[in-house]
Amino acid sequence: MIKLSNLADYAVELMCCIALKPQDVHSSAGLSDLAHIPLPTVSKILGTLVRAGLLASHRGLNGGFSLARPADKISITHIIEAVDGPVQLTNCLGEEASDCDRESNCGTRSQWYRINEAVKDALGSVRLSQMIESVPDFIGDGAMDDLPLIAKTLN
Predict the structure, then answer these.
(1) What's the CA gap between 89 and 3, in Å, rounded?
(2) How far apart are CA 63 and CA 57, in angstroms?
(3) One digit per residue, pLDDT tens: the chain, 155 residues?
(4) Domain residue limits at 75
(5) How many domains does the structure of the chain reveal?
(6) Which helix (H) or strand (E) holds 129?
(7) Assigned domain for 1 exists
(8) Is residue 15 within 8 Å of 74, Cβ to Cβ?
């Protein structure tokens, strides 16, 4: 199974919460309450996103975090790679030395590279601004009850 780490998933959710009100400065505690993610985890993720240049940190009594650039300039790849490192479907596709003893004889490595690039391109084509767009009308009444908090916040 190919899946994101919990931290990358939480990072996308936190960035969506911030992008919903981009003019505001958001506190760690407020984001923790809104997203229902433990405060130590939120603090760790926000620090990582600041170091990656996706968030700006504001000090002082009314300090907190805001987007470092517009939501339409931040891709999902930016967020995932800030937390998890490069998108890499197999361990031989990275820049670091692989521990695979079949790498030199692998007949599928070039195809995995193509697949990996397609996944990166797909994630890169989705912008943070798109993640916070309203839920489509074709989702019927009552269906919102099972959607995540971020979708409910939008309506």
Answers:
(1) 10
(2) 7
(3) 678 899 999 999 999 999 999 999 999 999 999 999 999 999 999 999 999 999 999 998 889 999 999 999 999 999 999 999 998 888 777 776 667 777 777 878 778 888 989 999 999 999 999 999 875 555 445 444 444 555 445 44
(4) 6-154
(5) 1
(6) helix 128-131
(7) no
(8) yes
